[in-house]
């Protein structure tokens, strides 16, 4: 397993991998647009790169109690990049400028009729968050060492032939995480960390994630 350090060399490597990746955009007008932020941070200020994950509060209308990346629906006139940064500020109290964006991944279509665009953001060393009590039940940091593990992904049978459900098991969570978040995080690992052109849009989500 590789050792990772939170430094400028990692930032350049992730940005270069994202720039060479031919990301795919879904043109289905029947899917509502949404964006999520994959935020690279310094885990515990110890020079260990990690990404933020949240668990949504139980009382939220959609995807309550599920693991998620900071994000949500696009407002009128917003780009996916603007939406990802706005949602990051609203959910985690982390206000970052546009120059912190390193790139994006494929749109991911969900059973709940969204097309999610993942936007990769560099948080920098001084990363203090203030989670929204209305939206966020808990915040986790998943270190790159866990993201890079060959123990992920894990697959479970889906509702359709040839469309398994992609899952991940991270020690930092203690529970299995399912798509769509698991698929997006897996593609981040493959593209941004390993420099591969891996697609994930064909992986299904479990029943509980359809609403």
Structure description:
This protein is α+β, with helices and mostly antiparallel strands and 211 residues long. It is built from 4 helices and 11 strands; from the N terminus they run αββββαββββαβββα. The strands form 2 sheets. Strands 1, 2, 3, 4, 5, 6, 7 and 8 form an 8-stranded mixed beta sheet that branches. Strands 9-10-11 form a 3-stranded antiparallel beta sheet, with helices on one face. A hairpin with a 4-residue loop joins strand 6 (108-109) and strand 7. The longest helix is centred in the middle third of the chain and has 13 residues, at 80-92. The protein is globular and about 45 Å long.
Topology (elements, then pairings):
Elements: H1 8-19, E1 32-43, E2 48-56, E3 67-68, E4 71-73, H2 80-92, E5 101-104, E6 108-109, E7 114-124, E8 136-143, H3 144-147, E9 154-160, E10 163-169, E11 176-178, H4 181-193
Parallel strand pairs: 1-7
Antiparallel strand pairs: 1-2, 1-4, 2-3, 2-8, 5-7, 6-7, 9-10, 10-11
Task: Note the main sheet.
Answer: 8 strands, mixed
**Topology as a string of helices (H) and strands (E):** HEEEEHEEEEHEEEH
Mean pLDDT: 92
Tell me the number of helical segments per DSSP (H or I, 4 or more residues long): 4
Radius of gyration from the CA trace? 16 Å
Shape descriptor reads: globular
Q: How much strand content do the residues show?
A: 25-35%
Oligomer: single chain
Percent in helix: 10-25%
How many runs of DSSP E, i.e. beta strands?
Answer: 11
Low-confidence stretches: none
Distance between the termini: 37 Å
Short description:
The protein is of the alpha+beta class.
């Amino acid at each position: 397993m590789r050792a990772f350090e939170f430094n400028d060399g990692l930032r350049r490597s992730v940005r270069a991998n994202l720039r060479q990746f031919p990301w795919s955009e879904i043109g289905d007008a029947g899917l509502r647009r949404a964006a999520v932020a994959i935020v690279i941070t310094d885990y515990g200020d110890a020079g260990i790169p990690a990404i933020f994950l949240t668990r949504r509060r139980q009382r939220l209308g959609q995807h309550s109690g599920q693991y998620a990346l900071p994000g949500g629906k696009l407002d009128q006139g917003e780009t996916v990049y603007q939406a990802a940064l706005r949602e990051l500020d609203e959910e985690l109290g982390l206000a970052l400028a546009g120059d912190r964006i390193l790139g994006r991944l494929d749109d991911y279509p969900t059973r709940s009729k969204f097309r999610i665009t993942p936007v990769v953001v560099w948080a920098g060393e001084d990363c203090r968050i203030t989670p929204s009590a209305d939206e966020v039940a808990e915040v986790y940091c998943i270190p790159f060492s866990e993201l890079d593990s060959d123990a992920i992904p894990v697959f479970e049978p889906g509702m359709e032939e040839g469309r398994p459900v992609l899952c991940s098991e991270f020690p930092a969570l203690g529970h299995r995480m399912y798509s769509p978040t698991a698929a997006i995080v897996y593609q981040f690992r493959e593209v941004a960390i390993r420099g591969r052109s891996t697609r994930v849009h064909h992986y299904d989500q479990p029943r509980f994630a359809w609403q």
